[in-house]
Structure formats: C-alpha cells, structure tokens
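Hey, can you fold this?
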Amino acid sequence: MNHDDLHFWSRRAADWTRDYHAGLRDRPVRARTRPGDTAARLPATAPEAPEPIETIFADFETLVPDAMTHWQHPRFFAYFPANAAPASILAEQLTAAMAAQAMLWQTSPAATEIEQVMMRWLRDALGLAGHFTGTIHDSATTATLCAVLTMRERALGWRGLEAGLSGQARLRLYASRETHSSVDKAARLSGIGQDNLVKVATDPDDAQLSMDPQALDAAIRADKAAGLTPAGVILCVGGTSVGAIDRIRDCIAIARAHDLYTHVDAAWAGSAMICPEFRALWDGVDGADSIVFNPHKWLGAQFDCAVQFLANPAEQVRTLGLRPDYLQTLDQDEVTNFNEWTVPLGRRFRALKLWFLLRAYGLEGLRARIRNHVAWSRELADDIAALPGFEITTAPVLSLFTFRWHDDARTRDLLARINDDGRIYLTQTSHAGRFVIRLQVGQFDCTRDDVRCVLEVLKDLTRD
C-alpha cells in the first residue's frame, strides 16, 4: 500500500465512518459476543506475503463492528463517555498523517505552542485563575500519578529521585472513599503504597458525599503524632461511582494549614465548568496545586485527552524532568518541553483536536450540549422515580444519577435484561451497601429522544 492507495482508501474510510455513525441507533449498544469469539476468527500467525487492502478492509467490516461495544452510540449511558466529535475525528486524521513525536519543542514546535495556547483557552473557559498553566496527558490516571509523584518528592525534599525510598520517611496520602481507583493506583506505583493511602470518611450529613474536612484534619494530625509524613491530599469533583463532590475550599484550607500539596480530580465533571452556573460545585478550586479534567469525557474531544492544570509547574518538572544531552535544544533560549511535565518521553499531538473542537463548535455550542444533558438527566430521574417499584438512590449530580428496582436481586436481573435488550447500555455500582444501576448522559450526539428511550426500556422490561 502506498500513498496513492491511501488517498483512495481514506475516502472509503470516510464513507464508512459517515455510514457507521448514521446507523448507530440501529445497532445494539453492547457487543453480543463471547470471550474468544473474535480471536477464533483470526489466523494464528501473521501472513508471509502482502495481502490486498481490499481484503483487509472487507475483513474489518466483517469482523470488527459487530464485535465492538459502540461508545459513540447516542444511547450509551454506561461509564463516562469517550466522545468523538466529528471535528475531533478530523484533527486526529491529520495528526495520524503527520505522525509527529511531540516530546520537545524542537521536534514539533507547532504542537508545543498550540498546546500552550489551548491550555490558556481552556483555563479561561473553565473560569480558572490566570496563574494556572497546563499540559495534556493521555488519561486522568497519568495526571494523578504525576501529581502524586510530585507530592512524594516535595515531601521528601526531592531526595527520593536519587536515593530511592528505602530509609526515607513513611509518606501518607489522603483521599475520600469516593475517589477513583486511579488514586489507589498512583499510591501503589509511586512507591508510597496502598496501606499509606488514607481513605477519609465522608460527611454523613452531606448529600454530595464530601470528604469531611474535620476528619481530614484529624487524620493528618494523628499521622504526624505517630511520626509519619503527610505528603498530599487528593480531592474529587464528580466521583465516578455516584458523582461525589468534596468541599474543595474547606479541604484545601486544611491541606494548606499543614503545607500539603493538593490535587483535584475533576476528570468528568470538569467539562461542565465551561457553564458558569455549575462552578459552585468546585468553589475554591483556584487554591489547588493541580487539577485534572478530561475533555474526551464530555467536551467532545477524541480519546485520549486529559488536561492537567498546574499552579506551579516547576515542582512537577523538577520531579519528572530529565534532560540528557541528546534531548537538549541547542541555540535556543529556554523553551517548554512538555515531556518533562509527564511520565512518558514520547507524546502525541493531542492539542490539534482541541483547537479544531473549540473552533468548530464554540464554547456556546459546547455549553448548550452540556446543559441539555444535565436537564434531560434530571427530567429522566423524576420520571423513573414515578415508576412502580423504582427508587432514585442518588439524586442527579450534573447528568449522573443511580436508581434501583425493588431489591438487589431484581435490580441485578433488570440490568442484565436491559443490556441484553440492546437499545441502551447501563452499568452498576454499589452505594450504601446496595446494588444500584448507574446512568450518565453525556454522549456527544445524543438527543432528548435518546434519553427518553431509557424510560421506554424500563417500562417494557418491568411491565409484568
């Protein structure tokens, strides 16, 4: 295959893409395959001779789409979405064509400088203070790991980088019980350890399941008294399970009083902050040292695209930066090399899709989508609550809520039947010791009718 062939088949792929998206509502949302089905249809070894691209493309059409769960389906209400607005898809095609390695300014000057400008555009769009700057990671998991590594080194006076952790002070991290498992992973991978991640109690009187600031303060004081070394606090805005939201201002005040680094995980809910009316949910966030949100979750950007804002990037660069001779930028004044802000050396040109996205839809267009999702979710929750045997177990937080039907056994059975039905896709979580169904509206192209389909499915499957 050469570039002339690529020209033809790129047009064919664009046609396939259009038809695929146009026909998504006619497909079951979740794949109807069993483990091993797809692998069994593939040859055991790679071909020795070239195969025609016609054959390869035909095999793709035959094997792949029906064996995929369709994340761009407008009735995908499971997990948080991984959006792919058409403008973002176009930008990713161009990124793939250039295949740039954007690790340094000199290897991709436009990639670096567009990323810098996009960070300012997004910072202002979210209403954050002007002292924040930022970078793009692959996922919030990586951003959180970077923040935790910075907490570690800051608490150790940057001794861990050279001397390792053996013989160093035993460090402690603090997060609520509602934070994402990426926080646990960061504690493990940073060498701090799972046992040193303190899950602080949430306030029982707070409907948003916020970390209790007084419990946080007590945990830090107890660790200090025991000779341990507090390193940092991880807060959440829009927890993955039921949308828990920590009292950001109060918890940051506690962290500041103990001189602790703070990281705010707003991976999903952060996108909603382009709407000024939702910013009260993270009141006080300008006091954070690090914030992460994923434009790929709710803003329309193609996966992967996680933005980390930093109040003082020098601390993270000091932790993660490493510049051997072969990565020096010669004959230039100091430039930003974003590989020093994160774990991998290699970096994709992720800023291009943000540039296309923000221009193609505008902030008002994106705000309208998010506002619709929130309104449709709240309307749906009210209607589900009126159905016989149904209970809203956690009220909508933005566009996320949970519900159950009668008891755990029947709720579990109902979820299985919902997903086997194929018209919509939902997932489960556990809340207050009960099995509940979790629903989040956020797919880029979904409509009110798509959301209303949930009510239709629930009525159909519980009519008897």
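Oh, and this one too while you're at it.
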Amino acid sequence: MKIGIVCYPTYGGSGVLATELGLALARNGHEIHFITYKRPARLSSHFHENVFFHEVDTEQYPLFEYTPYDTALASKMVDVVQSANLDLLHVHYAIPHAAVAYMAKKILLTQGRYLPVVTTLHGTDITLVGKDRSFAPVVEFSINKSDGVTAVSNSLRKQTHETFDIKRNIEVIYNFIDFSRFKKINKDHFKKAIAPAGERILIHVSNFRKVKRIQDVVQVFARVRAVMPAKLLLIGDGPERRNAEDQTRELGIYEDVRFLGKQDAVEELLAISDIFLMPSESESFGLAALEAMACEVPVISSNAGGLPEVNIHGKTGYMSNVGDVEDMAANTLLILRDEEVLAQFRANALAQAQRFDITEILPHYEAYYEEVLKSALITNAL
C-alpha cells in the first residue's frame, strides 16, 4: 500500500506513534509518505527505504496575522496524493488533521478520485473539547466523516462516545513498542556518572504541560529522597519546566535533579533508571510508561484514563489517585527498598510490555487499512 501519514512532528505521544508506525509499515514493504510542517522527531535524517517526507510550506504574508496552516496542509495533501498516487491517508489527531483531510478528500472528488481517510484519536483532541466546546462541531463532524477511526485505548473510545454523538464504530488499536530499540542495555558507565554512590534513579519523560503534573513528580521524588539516596532525571521540555526548576530549589533538592531537556536516545536513560513516574491528570494510553516498561522499569502512575490498561497495579508498578503524592512516594519506596522486589517488578514490567510489541500490533493496522479500502471500493461501486 501507499500510505500518507499526517501528524504533529513533536516529541508528544501522537507524533511518536505516527512516526514509529510509518517506519514499521515501510519495513513491511509499504510506501510511506509523511506530510507535516517539519521532520518528525523520531524520523532520523538518514535514508529509510520506502519512506518519504513532504514538508508543508507555511509562507508568511502581511495580510495574515497567523499563517493559514490548515489551507497549506490541505493543498499539500492533495499534491502528495496525486503525485505519489496514494491509496489511503492516515491522520493522527482530529484537530485539525481529520477536518483538513476531509477538505482534501472533497477536492480530490472533483477530480474523480476517492481517497479513504483513517483518523487515529490520541486523547487531547477529545479532552480539549471538554474544556472548549467551540471545537466540538468540527471534531464530531470530522470523526463521523472519516472512513475509519481508531483510538489508542478502550478508555479513550469510551470518552469519545461520551463527548460526541458518534455514528460509526471506533476500533481500538493500542500503542506499541519497538523492542529493537526499547530494551534494557548495559549502560553501567553512564549510570555511575549520574549516580556515583549507587543512588536510586527515578525518571520522568513528557512535554511538561500542566496535565503531566510535573510538580507532583518533584514532590514524589522529594519524599523518596528524604528516605534514601536518589536522583531524578527529567526528560523533555515545555511550559512547566521553569516552575519545576523553581520548585526543586525551594525544596533544596536541585543538586539531585537533572533537567536533561529533549533527548532522542531516551531508551539509554530508561536503561539506567529504577522507577518511572507518571502522575498525569489525563492519559489516553501512556506510551512513555510503556517504553519504560520495555526497558524493565516499573511504573508509578496515576489511575487516569488508559493507564490501567498499561500499568498493572501491584505487578508492573502501582497506581494512585491523581494528586496523591504521599501514596505514590510510599509505593515507590515499597519497590525500591528491596532488590528482590525490584527485580520481580522489572520482570513483570517487561512481560506486560511484550504484549504491545510492534510485531503484535502492526498486523491490526494493516488489516484495518485493508478493511477501510475494501469498504471504500464497495461504497464507490454503489
């Protein structure tokens, strides 16, 4: 198949999933065309067979206070579909990609071409509507007009149906892990540089938005550090980073916290970690937690959204109510105080992550594409 993938090219979960999915599809012999405003974070600059990148031009014009990205994206979609003769478009996030794809599809119809569109919902495109209803009509319309719709968890599918009047089936296809990349590797020399006295290492990876509750991460770490020597690695960047830095200074723990910013080789940092912290207010799935589990790192998380579908309480880690930093810290200490307990949680985390191996999930996407294409052919024949 020739598939166009439209996504946000950032370090967020949707961009990561879209890029890794495209690369896996390409390795399986499909021709993949990424369409976005810059090269996706997980798409390295070296050559990938069967992979093409199409940058959306967003020229500045004095007439516009804000560049009309949606219009530029629709035009680029149409151009790539025509020039590469795509079979299908797979857009990640309803806002604005599903709506823009509908516009592109309508343009192509005027040329006698029907292009099926699959939309994958990742979470924020749904929860955002709960805070700003002005998006609701467009999101609901775009989902209903897609030829296929997937969600990354049962929790997100349920929330979508509760938020919108959806007339069609939503297929749940979980996020996945590429074990050729995410696995525990020997980085003892690196670990000694971070924790020279053998301190426990806690880690958090996110885009540092409010919903990630970075201050809870710091609070949990401060409580753990008060009981045992420990270090905290904070990976990523975003609007809450400055507040977190100020908080670590106020708590007197700044010297034991490393703000490492955005990292491409996050698996190397997970490989030296003992606990992954994810106290999020909302998570449609928890891809970062799954990546940690693949590297044999137990997870301390909230019980929000799709996290219970990933993190098994008392087995791969522990879950607490959102904001309950005391419970999260106590659960962290339960794991870290005993080497045998930590080893068992590590083994359980790996076993759970293996259920989401990309080799298990990829066939579901391929089968779904075939189903959508077959349905589109029948629709056009009527």
